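Hi R.,

Here are the chain sequences for the assembly we discussed:
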Amino acid sequence: MILSNYHSHFNLDDGYGELSDYAESAIERGLSIIGVSPHAPLCYLNDWTLSEANLDAYAASIPGFKADYEDRLEIYGGLEVDFIPGGMGPADVRYHSLGLDYRIGSVHSIEDTSRGEHLSVDGPLAEMELLLQETFGGDIKALVRRYFELEMEMLELGGFDILGHCDLVKKRNIDNRFFNQDEKWYRNEALQMLQLASKKDVVVEVNTGGLSRGATVEVYPSRWMLEHCYELKIPITLSSDAHNPDHIDYYFQESINLLKSVGYGEIYFFSKGQWRSQPIL
Ligand SMILES: [Zn+2]
Ligand SMILES: [Zn+2]
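And here is the predicted structure of the full complex:
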């Protein structure tokens, strides 16, 4: 079985280590293909994405990086692009004119109109609480609805290959601090988004990045969502969202077993410009 990972960061965004460290780790662990996907620069100040200056430098470094590992590892250059209504998104022409191989579309933050800022559901617990209290007046249903609504707007606009960590809104919900995924209202919001994803030409990733960084006790998306993905015939790929070379295949075998247990018999990988399926072994 070809093992691949298309979601990883490095020291030009919020990851640790050089591109070559990720390649060496992938070879050591038996991966055949890797893609790197630093965060595209945001339309507001932050400390976790590529800088504007580094975006071009990153894209320009990819052909040489591929050549360095030609005989040992298939390498692709991608970007993880945020969707910010009126600001930026994976459909923007600029992300398609850099000579890169693919894009991950992700929603990390929600606009806080009262503050004129964007607050992240991926950041510290205090930031999630601020977002909930200040932007949504404590209404968690409204926050969750807005999160999935943003993903749906991004899906409608398209321009990306992989839908990134599609239930990231649960990241700070340890011990059901904010909501219970078993409740009907939550399931309806998430399911609407998956139904739309199934009609678009995108691959959903099983993302193990919450687990490797100790933030979650399960992958993105949750098992019950993967069961719906299977029913909706949504193609799946495995992603570690590695921010450290040692995590390049974190929790992959467990995720493969999880996919098998929900019924999946195949998994998708990207190679030579195309997404293909292979049986899960
Ligand atoms: Zn992300
Ligand atoms: Zn990421």
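DSSP finds eight helices and eleven strands in the chain. The longest strand covers residues 74-82.

Let me know if anything looks off.

Best,
T.
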